[in-house]
Design brief:
223 residues, alpha+beta, 5-stranded antiparallel beta sheet, 4-stranded antiparallel beta sheet, 6 helices, Type I-E CRISPR-associated protein Cas6/Cse3/CasE
């Protein structure tokens, strides 16, 4: 597995296009891998775009094989300095142990199922959670099945906050698609390293093709 980070230059026309279209960004990330790259590999390519302070913005990718992001650099990156960096991720994943605590960041698509009013009983559809409280509850409800717990913070509430929320709207196959996203930051404690490794490499929740589901960890105090 590999974890890659690529600074984006938001002043470039290509960057504006990629940042405004999750479909275009997904296609750009997928093009970083040769056809058939994932056939014999576990996991999938996950990506997320993070704001890094006032002017910085970066693309993160976790993938079973090392990506070649040259074409993304040509469209939307910086032509000087370190254009992107990929590090081997398997050693870090293998070192996860129960009881460890890490800072985490996750952009997700928190949804719940509702019954369709015009369909037979049992036919449901996913509907986005709209409030911060419901979005936090969505993640807390899934933590145990994902191999981690979120401990209490200094105020005896879960060490978890929603730092950004947005709605993605685009057309796909002639249909309008709307995806509600929430970006979480907080502290997690490893409970089941095997389950957590799977989530770190396969993603959490829906809309993984559109920049959701990638959890990244960092030592506490670094963010």
């Amino acid at each position: 597995m590999y974890l890659s980070k690529m600074p984006l230059n938001r002043r470039r026309r290509g960057a504006v296009k990629l940042l405004s279209s999750p479909q275009a960004m997904h296609a750009a990330v997928q093009s970083a891998f040769a056809p058939g790259s994932f056939v014999e590999s576990e996991g999938r390519a996950l990506w997320r775009v993070d704001e890094l302070g006032r002017d910085g913005i970066a693309l993160y990718v976790v993938s079973p094989v090392e990506p070649d992001l040259s074409h993304v650099v040509e469209q939307a990156g910086w032509q000087t300095g370190e254009m992107w960096k990929s590090v081997e991720y398997g050693g870090f994943l293998a070192g996860l142990r129960a009881g460890q605590r890490w800072g985490f960041r996750l952009r997700a698509n928190p949804v719940h199922s509702v019954y369709k009013s015009d369909k037979a009983w049992g036919d449901t559809k996913p509907v986005a959670h709209l409030t911060v409280k419901h979005q936090q509850t969505w993640l807390l409800d899934r933590a145990a099945k994902c191999g981690f717990a979120i401990p209490d913070g200094p105020q005896h509430e879960a060490a978890l906050r929603v730092v950004d929320r947005s709605t993605l709207k685009f057309n796909k196959g002639g249909h309008s698609v709307t995806i509600g996203t929430a970006t979480f930051e907080g502290v997690l404690q490893v409970e089941d390293p095997v389950l957590l490794r799977s989530v770190l490499t396969n993603g959490l929740g829906r809309a993984k093709a559109y920049g959701c589901g990638l959890i990244t960890l960092a030592p506490l105090g670094i963010g």
